[in-house]
Amino acid sequence: MKLKRILKWSARVILLALVLGFLVGFIAYWRSTNECDSKTAANNPMKAILHCEYGGPDVLKVEEVEKPVPNDNQVLVKVRANSVNPLDLTIRGPLLLRPLFGLRKPKDTRLGVDYSGTVEAVGKNVTNFKPGDEVFGGKNGAIAEYVCVLADRAVVLKPANMTFEQAAAVPVAAITALQGLRDKGKIQAGQKVLINGASGGVGTFAVQIAKSFGTEVTGVCSTRNVDLVRSVGADHVIDYTKEDFTKTDQRYDLIFDLVGNHSFSERRRILNPNGICVMAGIGGAGWHEGFATRLLGELNGYLRSRFVSQKFIAYIAQFNKADMAVLADLMQAGKVNPIIDKTYKLNDTADALRYLEQGHARGKVVINLEQ
Ligand SMILES: NC(=O)c1ccc[n+]([C@@H]2O[C@H](COP(=O)([O-])OP(=O)(O)OC[C@H]3O[C@@H](n4cnc5c(N)ncnc54)[C@H](OP(=O)(O)O)[C@@H]3O)[C@@H](O)[C@H]2O)c1
Questions:
Q1: What are phi and psi of 201, to 5 degrees?
Q2: How many angstroms separate the alpha carbon of residue 80 from the centre of ligand 1?
């Protein structure tokens, strides 16, 4: 009798919580708004790429917004070039991320992270940059004529031997490769390293960075990219359309996997007993068949590797000034040369994203604001 009453009350409480949750979600959804709803004419305008709605590249617009003004700790950068990354495709508003990004409309309407440019003004506390310095870095909403960035964050001087386009190609992709190989993969000279997805934005940097550590690198790519992957320094190249890299007799100390299209057991078989598989991505940019399966496969790999000697590690790269400086040094020393697949004008940013979304970029896709 008592148990029946408890069950009845529990059911009522759960039902009430569900109804309330639905109501709160419904109201939050319809109240979700962004700056586009209250946009007024800019006093000191600059062009920026905006997406007022969720959707594919078609929702991107070139709009006039207020030119930012640096505070005491910031530098104002006149942007010369940007590059796009799979990350930018979150403009589609994946349902799982909408509680963070805005339920009905994106809270942050600006696009892009990677930029290079010239310092135009500095705040009064800034001592490490001066007007005229050529810099590159990462900052949300970077695809615009100007960005304001904190001087102590991920912004460093552009090496003189790099063009603005090359420098803009670097930040997200190269820092992902650097942190994945060095911090997660514990890369050491003399190791055998396999890079799956070696021809894309991150992969072309990963091959070069792995070589800079004195390792023997095998890159995996399709037929048309074999020469490209060899040209960036891979010692061996496996054409995935002809050969399955998990079915050879080779063993590796480190797998840097940007594709995630092989099972835990398949990858474990080709890892040395203390080898590490760094699970950095699940294939080229954009939605593709097997997206969800690969995501679950990586979770499975992470969980199962708790019980074996090899480690399977996932991570999200984080910007910091020290790593940007490491990349600048590698570029200066000629050890990292950004590979640019295509360059677009600012007005054609939507086309740049459409191309990236096909998932077959060869190196980086860049936007040049000077054109
Ligand atoms: N963990 C992080 O913090 C982080 C940061 C940045 C990116 N990522 C992820 O890393 C992945 C790669 O990013 P990205 O910027 O390099 O993307 P991307 O530039 O779009 O990569 C495109 C490349 O992927 C290759 N590819 C596609 N399917 C392949 C397969 N089955 N085997 C081998 N290569 C294949 C393509 O080569 P083909 O044309 O020859 O197929 C193409 O060259 C994405 O999943 C991205 O989300 C993760």
A1: -55, -55
A2: 25
Alpha carbon distance 12, 54 (integer Å): 37
Structure tokens at 361: 């970029």
Question: In what helix (H) or strand (E) does residue 63 lie, and over which residues does it extend?
Answer: strand 61-66
pLDDT in tens, 298-348: 999 999 999 999 999 999 999 999 999 999 999 999 999 999 999 999 999
Report residue 27's pLDDT band, with 50, 70 and 90 as the boundaries. Answer: low
Say if CB 336 and CB 330 are below 8 A apart.
Answer: yes
C-alpha to C-alpha distance for 158 and 355, rounded to whole angstroms:
27
291 or 158, higher pLDDT = 158
**With contact defined as beta carbons under 8 Å apart, do 195 and 219 qualify?**
yes
Q: CA angle 164-168-170, nearest 5°?
A: 125
For every residue of 301-362, DSSP letters joined together read HHHHGGGSSSEEEE------HHHHHHHHHHHHTTS----EEEEEEGGGHHHHHHHHHTT--S
Please tell me the distance from the alpha carbon of residue 269 to that of residue 314, in angstroms, as a whole number.
Answer: 19
324 touches ligand 1 (CB under 6 Å):
no
Asked whether 85 lines ligand 1 (CB < 6 A), one says yes
pTM (predicted TM-score): 0.92
Q: Does the CB atom of residue 228 touch ligand 1 within 6 A?
A: no
351 CA to centre of ligand 1 in angstroms: 18
Is 202 close to ligand 1, i.e. is its CB under 6 Å away?
Answer: yes
For ligand 1, whether the C-beta of 239 sits within 6 Å is no
Residues 6+ apart with CB under 8 A from 27: none
Decide: 321 and 152 in contact? Cβ < 8 Å: yes
Q: Which of 222, 315, 356, when mutated, tests ligand 1's pocket best, judged by the most ligand atoms within 8 Å of its CB? A: 222
Taking CA atoms, 310 is separated from 78, 187, 251, 258, 276, in Å, by: 46, 14, 12, 18, 6
Q: Which atom of ligand 1 is nearest to the CA of 280?
A: 1
